[in-house]
Amino acid sequence: MHDPFSPPVADAKTEIRNTTCYMCACRCGIRVHLRNGEVRYIDGNPDHPLNNGVICAKGSSGIMKQYSPARLTKPLRRKAGTERGAGEFEEISWEETFSILGERLGKLRATDPKKFALFTGRDQMQALTGLFARQFGTPNYAAHGGFCSVNMAAGMIYTIGGSFWEFGGPDLERSKLFIMIGTAEDHHSNPLKIALSKFKREGGRFISINPVRTGYSAIADEWVPIRPGTDGALMLALIHEIIALGLYDRDFLVRYTNSGQLVNLDAEHDEFGMFVRTEVPQEEGCYDPQNKLWWDRNTEKAVVTHTEGADPYLFGEFKMPDGTKVKPAFQLLQERVKDYTPEWAEQITGISAETIRRLAHEMGITARDQKIELPIAWTDSWGKEHETVTGNPVSFHAMRGLAAHSNGFQTIRALSILMTLLGTIDRPGGFRHKTPFPRPIPPCARTPNDPRAVQPNTPLDGMALGWPSDPDDLFVNPDGSPVRIDKAFSWEYPLSVHGMMHNVITNAWRGDPYKIDTLLLFMANMAWNSSMNTSEVRKMLTDKEENGEYKIPFIVVCDAFHSETTAFADLILPDTTYLERHDVMSMLDRPISEFDGPVDSVRIPVVPPTGECKPFQEVLIELGTRLKLPAFVTQSGERKYRDYPDFIVNWETAPGSGIGFLSGWRGKGGEKSIRGEPNPNQWEMYAKNDCVHHHVLPRSYQFMRNWNKGYLEWSQRNGITRYSEPILIHLYSEVLQKFRLAAQGKSITRQPPAHLAKRIETFFDPLPFYYEPLETQTSDKLKYPLTALTQRPMAMYHSWDSQNAWLRQIHAHNYLYVNAQTAKNAGIADGDWIWCESQWGKVRCMARYSESVEPGTVWTWNAIGKAAGAWNLSPDANESQKGFLLNHLISEELPAQHDGKRYSNSDPITGQAAWYDVRVRIFKAEEGEPEQTSPQFEPMKKYPGMKEHPSWLAYFGGGKKKGGAQ
Description:
It is a single chain. The protein is of the alpha/beta class. Helices cover 23% and strands 15% of the residues. The chain is built from 24 helices and 34 strands. It has a seven-stranded mixed β-sheet with strand order 5-4-25-24-23-6-7, with helices on one face. Strands 29-33-30-32-31-34 form a six-stranded mixed barrel. A four-stranded parallel β-sheet has the order 11-10-9-21. Strand 1 and strand 2 form a beta hairpin. The relative contact order is 0.15.
């Protein structure tokens, strides 16, 4: 008998199909082996540019996801007369499902579109879901970014025009020194593992700065443990040292940043804190006009930036002919970090001043003395021709550990400036952009800025999400109150560019700023690991008005699996798995581009949908057609697209634009790339080419793209960016200063409500500064001396994989990991049952000693713990009895202010959820307490259409076992 865990022997009934994995955000290329139409083996596609055939545990275990007993297979409606959360459902047809949705949503669109809210989790089709929301006319749309890493995206994009995440990363192929900060094991997993192994073999030095040493950090040459939420203090101290030692790249700063531009220091002037400009009128647009001034060292006077032969001062104070005092932005940066010394940072971060100095010196010396020079000619935005591309081989990678704090935006601004001082932006061996980035600062997309943008039976007049450039871009009412249910793009959270998903349920439950009618959640486990304050959020989902109606009247959940959240649905839409549907990793969305050029990819179904599952993409196309949303119907109101694949082929950003969801094999015969007419055979051409399209740019376009004339003009020609102007790095942020001026009453723009003016003035500083996380400021640090963190393990992604039979063998339950000495001081032995308590709640769990965590931190894996019976696991499964969820200790809101006002537990600039700011204490459980995690909930029920728990061999045609989880 053939071993079912090895590749099948080829025979007439065996075939191999290429597609793209979706077990995490990595989206690797895979080969799916089928026998008699059933999945029997999955391995990596060696021809895929992203993962080169490498595959992780998640990817190879996809077979167990496909045949999981947690699969939902039929549309379900909550039974009449039953309570929400009880899990009592009845089967209905898709026609009845669409009729229910069409009637309800049609009434909302005809009366008040904002009563409908669409919020999605970690999906890969935000360009489509965002299009649907905009066409419907609701402003209430966002994806997972607001509770994941919006600080990373916003902090870097508002500074350098690009970001870590899908949009850029470290050039480890050429780097000599690599510093990773606050990164868990799942971000860019396989490509990063490939690059790191090669980097280490070739002698690169790897430093990990993290409170916890796991995953990638385990192979670091040096681990620098840091107290959570203090990374900004470290960045500022490193900047202090780099400037003090003169180890910054002056030539890079002068030509490619705003460091030499002169800032108005007249505190009485309406332009206080803004750059001094020439009389040239500012052109409309989302880029920096080249009309600012330097103080030239040669002529000792103010000149327009980049004047040929000019050499600006970076330090000093000068006086304009009209008497206005000015300083270069770099001078202001030096003054800002003057007191941010290593000794100051040591007291905050727990890292010794000696180590901070050594790190700064190593970074600066490596960047200065190990320069790379590539024989690549290119032309910059000012027409200067360069014979070579040079680089400073120090690279960084950072993610959610920096982002998920209420001080994260300014921390990431500081990191971006540190990278810039070292001269590493889009240069060999440093940080490199991935198309469609860099974008102008800020990018051109804007939300509406007027409540009249929301009108019945009309698409939203603006983008659902966008990048504000000043207070006039905020989406607020005339009195300054928010238009959106999550309060994104309001005075409370102005630059919340990804929305604020973590506050939707609380705001809707409270009716602040208003009540909604229908909440549609896709791939978002908001009744469990995707919510802060999980226990209370579950109550909100079932809470009723005095008249007996639910406070959130109608909840629709679309998911492929039986999750904690499905129990709270009034209507369940069974989604397909990634092996059953068409998908696109689009250039309009979250592409998988490489450093050398744009890449997008597709998923091709390898097996038919299970039961009556329907891809959510198809659901949106059908709903859009039935509701007669303009993008989905002809002018006469007839169906425009047969299905989702037809939509992907034929939809264009504008009639005749030649720009669609896919960039490969465009043109009627597939002869065009990036831009071209719709190609009816586009899907087939992707299928024949490993499901991926890789457009390699000329070498002269592959570096220095913020200021690369050839690349910027190519990008403009192909509709990737609107302008071909240079994108200078913003050491000093005028965007932030515009908000501060408004708060100070000096601006002709909108001004914030009085109760928010001080908040805006404080946090919207044009230069990074350090402040203690907001929740930490409100915590009793003597009572709660520890910081609690979660990480996503490499073998699981969010909550989707704990029902996977193979992956459960790796993580069947989780522990709270505690530094051994910290635990001993609390009288806790390795393996003890303990309580972990915050000001918001407490959980009972098991402790595990670890020397790989700094003494003031405790941590656990995220989403391993489950509610009893969830994901069709047995109620007594380890995941619910021994596993626990740290979210019960976290709040989505800060404690009430003196006036009773409660703000989101988020970064006040971007609205980023502050997951990692919670303070806790730990103590041993009492003798006789149940050896069971707490809190516990009533076991979830199985729904109609779900499978029995199978035995191992049932996946391979073997028997079936009744009863418990396998």
